[in-house]
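Archive entry: two folds, one per protein. Generate the first.
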Amino acid sequence: MRIIFDAYELIQGQGKSLGIYNYAKNLLKALVEEIDDKTELLVICNSANQHDFSYQHPRVRTILVSATPPRKIARLIWFFGRAAIETRKLQADVYFSPKGFCPKLLKTLSPALKTVVIIHDLIPLWYAEHFPGYFGRLEEWFINNSIVSSTKYADRIIAISQATRDDIAARTGRTQGVAMIYNGISVPAPGPRPYPHPYIFAMSSTLPHKNAEGILAAYQAYRHQTDSPLPLFICGIETTAQDGVTSIKAAYASELHAYFAYAELFLFLSFTEGFGFPPLEALAHGTPVLCSDIPVLREISKGTANYVALDDSAAIGRKIVELLNQENSVELQNQRRAVLNEFTWAACAKGVLKSILN
């Protein structure tokens, strides 16, 4: 079986694009370990990502289709026809997209082709409901139309959480041909302690669904409820003048994970997520987590985090005080770390390959 692994559009950007890039890179590495002599992986890439998507393996072939990283026009050309043309040239049996979109004309040019698409989340549809036009009306229409079309018409969908699978069913009506396969989690060793005293750590971004304002409001509520508030270090937002808050930018994974590992508490108060890596990364270090009470975060944390509604900053502040006053025992730390056993790249690759071959 000849499987196209489409990494053509993937770039090491920021936020979600970086997350999907790392997902694809780690998944491919694990897939290479799983394929047998009846399976051939044809990895389509560009010059900028070739080093991360090339393998010296008899059943893996790298197809370089661009001498430069694809810009917007090149990506549109790929989506509306070039991907289908390249797929036909390669006489593939399966087209696999780790990005979440199924390009046009694939079935038109290759009628026997099967398509398999990873759906990371349906957050763009959430934006259309809660922040219409946030990314521009034309881009919103294009992205949402492409996601819905891919979700409805790909031969097989792989959702990265049960919450995403449920969202697909609720928003598109599709329940058949949808598998749920968790991501793997790679946790590097933390670097040196970043701050000599106890502190709280949070991750967010300037995107509305990450709820940076809610984190800052909850932290200020906490400060008003205790005589000796811990400082907050927050990654992902610009510098703020709020009391006790320091915005940080971690240059290396070990530096970021040092903030996770040595924090007294990790805050993550997103409105919506498809999976939610940061809480798991904190749990991997045994750090207590306070996060949004949304289905996906309950699902992936397996009951080892603490959950709060997002409509009452004062209540979140009280919960922060409560958790900081609790003992962080070795037993609790080990329970949190054990959650990571559910999320390995080997298990992810086995599940993805099974879905493709079936």
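Generate the second and append.
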Amino acid sequence: MLVPHVTGLALSQAIKRLRARGLRVGTVSKRPSARSRGTVLVQSNRTGSKLKSGSSVSLAIAAPLPIVPNTIGDNRFASQRELRRAGFSVRTTKHQTSSARAGTVIDQAPNGGNRARPGATVTITLAVKPPAPPPPTQENNCTPGYSPCLPPAPDYDCAGGSGDGPAYADGPIYITGSDPYDLDADADGVACE
């Protein structure tokens, strides 16, 4: 008996075709596949090979790909454990955010609920705290052009002078650039002397 080509057929069609040639179906195993459930993926004997009547041909048929678990919101270790138990490899990336607890899964690809090949890599993204902002430097709290520092104010006048403030500076104040408060009346580079 010549073995018919049954790869790509539904299991029921493959069985009919084998029986029509006087052959039996041997072991039927399942393999995860993107093909339709029950489609013959592999046959044990090549098409056209000769077998005795009543011989068995084993088949491997398509089974649905496993579903990727949704691990968003889980901690890193729980996510990795669940994904590995489901048969997937895990890759971890990090993303700075203040909207989620550090170490929490905030994204994954492929998404939970999708089907993927066993052993496929699922990338999980973990929340990490953004770095703390640097403390303000004195420059950020100083009006440019004066030494020592003059904290920003609507206006400065020299203490003891005739100005109306609202802020007053005790001299000497060295002019290191522009003089936005016009404190250096004699333009000698030193104000409030």
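Annotation attached to the second fold: Residues 44 and 58 are 5 Å apart (CA to CA). The longest helix spans residues 11-20.
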